[in-house]
Amino acid sequence: MKKRAVIPQPLIIEQTHHAPTEKVWDAITVEDQMRNCLHPWKIVEEVHGRKIRYEWRLDDHPGNSQLTFELFAEGDKTRLVLTQECIVTNK
Question: pTM of the prediction?
Fold first, then answer.
């Protein structure tokens, strides 16, 4: 069985966008609106309209990377919290 450990100190970025949560959600989930992704990814968690977590693996690095987007409505704006974590898999 593989053991997973999160490397400490995730990278967290917080931004406020002058757009409703629906538009921000579409920008991070609809493939036609996403920028070209350099690495194959998969969705590992989703709370529609509020949170989505992607995971991918870089060929030349051990473990996976997870990127979580969390959306918070603030009037006619959206606060976006982005968290990137590195996951090391021990065989």
Answer: 0.78
